[in-house]
Amino acid sequence: MLGYHDGFHELWAEDGLWEIGAPFNVRIEGIEAIVDMLHRLRDERTYFTQLIPTGVIEIDGDRASPVFRT
């Protein structure tokens, strides 16, 4: 996704919510705020990666929730 902020923007619903755990511990709501956070996380660093454990997205009508089992 190197530099592909527009594509990241397209992933989110207008009322999207992005929660990031430690060490950041932030909750970001809305597309513009979410994309701004990506800019701040990625653009200030020479190297940026996100590791995601195996999970499932449960869809219930117009709502979706990630489920990660450890």
The helicity comes to 25-40%
Q: Rg to the nearest angstrom?
A: 13 Å
Mean pLDDT: 81
Element order: H for helix, E for strand: HEEHEE
Coarse morphology: globular
| Count of extended strands | 4
Distance from first to last alpha carbon:
26 Å
Query: What structural class is derived from the secondary structure elements?
Result: alpha+beta
Largest sheet: 2 strands, antiparallel
Strand order of the largest sheet: 1-2
Count of DSSP H/I helices = 2
Poorly predicted spans: none
Percentage beta strand: 25-35%
SSE layout:
Blueprint: H1 5-10, E1 17-20, E2 26-29, H2 31-43, E3 55-60, E4 63-68
Antiparallel strand pairs: 1-2, 3-4
Notable characteristics:
70 residues; alpha+beta; two-stranded antiparallel sheet; two-stranded antiparallel ribbon; globular
What does this structure look like?
The N and C termini lie far apart (26 Å). Helices cover 27% and strands 29% of the residues. The protein is globular. The chain is α+β, with helices and mostly antiparallel strands and 70 residues long. The strands form two sheets. A two-stranded antiparallel ribbon has the order 1-2. The chain has helices spanning 5-10, 31-43, and strands at 17-20, 26-29, 55-60, 63-68. The longest helix is centred in the middle third of the chain and has 13 residues, at 31-43.
Quick gist of this model?
The chain has helices at residues 5-10, 31-43, and strands at residues 17-20, 26-29, 55-60, 63-68.
